[in-house]
Amino acid sequence: MQSAMAAGKLSFTTDLAAGVAHGDVLFIAVGTPPLPTGESDTRYVEAVARGIGQHLDGRYRVIVNKSTVPIGSGDWVRGLILEALLERDTPPVSRFADFSVVSNPEFLREGSAVYDTFNPDRIVLGGNDLQALELMKSLYEPIVSRQFAADPSLPSVPVVTTDLASAEMIKYAANAFLATKISFINEVANICDRVGADVSQVAQGIGLDSRIGPKFLQAGIGWGGSCFPKDVSALVHTAADYGYDAVLLKAAVATNQSQRLRALDLLQQSLKILKGKTIGILGLTFKPHTDDLRDAPAFDIIDQLLRLGAKVKAYDPLYVDHCPEDLPLSVQRCSSPAQLAAGCDALVLATDWPEFQTLDYSALATTMHNPLLVDGRNSLDPAAITQAGLAYIGIGRGVQPAVMVTQLHAAQRLTAKAA
Ligand SMILES: NC(=O)c1ccc[n+]([C@@H]2O[C@H](COP(=O)([O-])OP(=O)(O)OC[C@H]3O[C@@H](n4cnc5c(N)ncnc54)[C@H](O)[C@@H]3O)[C@@H](O)[C@H]2O)c1
C-alpha cells in the first residue's frame, strides 16, 4: 500500500539547487561519524547547510536537522545558512532569509528502518518557530494518525515538541540510556559468571518489572554499530566541553569495550593457549538484518585472536560473495557454517543471525577439532547445543553446561575405550 501511494512521487537528484527549489521542508540527513577524539564530525552537515544557504530563493523553508548532531547545532546550522546567504552577491539578504531550523531526531533501528518509520514510538520536533512546527506536524500527520501503521487501531503517535537544544539532547540521551542499559546487564552477567547465576534468568526476573522493562537486557559481547558508540562518545565529549565529567557514560563505554574481549577470556579459560588454535567466528555484522560492520565487536575479537597467534576463520550470511574491506587478510573467509566449523577448536557466535538458531550443530560438532561454542549473544539454547555434542559457554550463564558436556565427552571416551 505504501509503495503504491508513493508511486510517482519520489525522485532523486544530485543537484542541490534543484533539491532546494523543490522542497518546502528540507531534511539534512547526512552522516555525522565520530572523529578520533570522540566528537562528531559535522563537516557534512556544514557542507549541506552552506549549500542550502547558497540556493534559498526567498520562499519560506523549514530546514530539518535529521542527522544526529551535537547539541547547539540547530543554531549553528542557522548561522551557516545566513553566512552562505551573505556570501552571495544578491542583496538584500533579508529577501532570501525566510527560513526556520527544526530538530527532528531519528530513532529508527538499522535493519527495520521502513517499519520503524511508519510505526514510531514518538516524533520529536524541536524549534521555536510555531509556523515551522505546525508545518512539520502536518507533514507527519499520516504517520501520527497511523495511516501506514502495522496496527492502525493503535492510539495516535505522540508528538513531543521542545526547544532546539532539548530535541538534540533527547536523541543523545535515548541512545546513551539504551547503551548504558546493555552495559549494565553485561556487568551483571560478568558478576553472574563469578557467582554461578544465569543472567538470562536474572534479565527475565528484572525485565518483568514495568519500571525496568524487558528490552535491551540481553547480555553478550556488547554494542557496536554506527550510532551507540559515536553518540555516547559525543555526549561524553559535549559534557566535557561544558566542564562536566560524565562518569556513568564513560563507564558504560569502558564496560562495553572490555565486554568485547569477554569472549576471548572464555576461550582462554577453556582452551588455555590460543596460539595455533583455530577459531571460527559466526557473524561479523554488529547486529543481524544489516550489513553494517561499523564498530562491530567481531572485529575486535578477531584482532585480539590474531594478536595471540590464533588462526581465524569467519562466516557471515551477508558476506558470502564479497569480502568486508576491513577484514584482515589472514582471516579465512568461509562460505558456509560447515566450512567454518571444519577443524575449529572453538566457534564464537558474534552476531545473532536467526539462521544460527537452526544450524545442524551435531553435524558441525563432528567436523570440529574441539567441539566448543562460545555464544557471544546468549542467543542459543545451552541444552540443545550441549545435546548436539558441543561444550556451550554463554556470557553470564554459568559454566555448568560446558562442564557437563566436557564430563559427557570424558565418559563417552571411557565407554569407547572400554568397548
Ligand atoms: N543509521 C541509523 O540507524 C541511524 C538512526 C538514527 C539516526 N541516524 C543518524 O542519521 C545520520 C545519517 O546516518 P547514516 O547511518 O544514514 O549515515 P551514512 O554514512 O550511512 O549515510 C550518510 C549519507 O550522506 C551522504 N552525504 C554526505 N555528504 C553529503 C552532501 N553534502 N550532500 C548529500 N549527501 C551527502 C553520504 O554520501 C551518505 O550516503 C547520522 O547523523 C546518524 O547519526 C542514523
Plain-language structure description:
There is one protein chain. The chain has about 425 residues and is of the alpha/beta class. The protein has three domains: about 10-165, Rossmann fold (3-Layer(aba) Sandwich), CATH 3.40.50; about 170-260, N-(1-d-carboxylethyl)-l-norvaline Dehydrogenase, domain 2, CATH 1.10.1040; about 260-419, 3-Layer(aba) Sandwich (Rossmann fold), CATH 3.40.50.720. The protein is about 45% helix and about 10% strand. It is built from 16 helices and eleven strands. The protein has helices at about 1-5, 15-20, 45-55, 75-85, 115-120, 130-145, 165-195, 200-205, 230-240, 245-260, 260-270, 295-305, 335-340, 360-365, 380-385, 400-419; strands at about 25-30, 60-65, 100-105, 125, 160, 280, 310-315, 330-335, 345-350, 370-375, 390-395. The strands form three sheets. The chain has a six-stranded parallel sheet with strand order 8-7-6-9-10-11. Strands 1-2-3 form a three-stranded parallel sheet, sandwiched between helices. Helix 14 (about 360-365) links the parallel strand 9 and strand 10. Helix 2 (about 15-20) crosses helix 3 and helix 7 (about 165-195) crosses helix 10. The protein is elongated, with a radius of gyration of 25 Å. The termini are far apart. Mean pLDDT is about 95; it is low at about 400-405. Bound molecules: nicotinamide-adenine-dinucleotide. Nicotinamide-adenine-dinucleotide binds near residues 48 and 106.
